[in-house]
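Can you give me the bound-state structure? Components:
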Amino acid sequence: MTALPADFYEQEVTRVARCLLGKRLVRILDGKRLSGIIVETEAYRGEEDLACHAKSGPTRRNAVMYGPAGHAYVYFTYGMHWCLNVVTGVVGFPAAVLIRAIQPVEGLEEIALRRGRFPRRQWCNGPAKLCQAFLINGTCNGAPLLSAGGALWIEEDIDIKDDQVRTGPRVGIDSAPEPWRSKPWRFLATLPDIDQND
DNA sequence: CGCCCGATGTGCT
DNA sequence: GCACATCGGGCGT
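Here's the bound-state model for the whole set.
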């Protein structure tokens, strides 16, 4: 397979967030391939967006968001969790899509090393959970996603129709003021529920 | 320098 | 439903 190209990520961030639904996130660990279908995303858009990490201008932490599209912005939060974003849009405009949930497909045994003590439905159904599952952390911050020869990239996979997409307010930003708190920039794909042993 | 709190997850009541 | 882990960023003093 081939990685999604730079021009995919160079689109407007909410469009990238919508179009990432159904794509395949791929991680190579120790030569083994882990992957899953992206089923939930959120868009964070510019310094104006008061829920975005760039709301106070460029800092060491958010610097990657100001760089070229198609790179990973990985941040640390709550003293213990990592979250994965993909940078979008043009250089100089800080915007990124938070990957909030995936449905695991490949590398289930590798994933189980870190998530196996939980029911399978809970392996990757949160931004920090999927980072733990795929061993994504600060060493991945700034990594390019543009080559299928790298350690992390995104591929085409299944087609998600508009009637399979739900939108809503972003999660965990209740302290952001309106209108940002209510922007419908969370995107969820409703997949036919494949039976997974819980 | 100190304080507050966060794009969360987990376990316990 | 709720407390709490755990620490760095951002901001005010």
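A couple of observations. The beta strands of chain A are 24-29, 32-45, 72-77, 81-87, 95-106, 152-155, 165-168, 186-189. The first strand of chain A starts at residue 24 and ends at 29.
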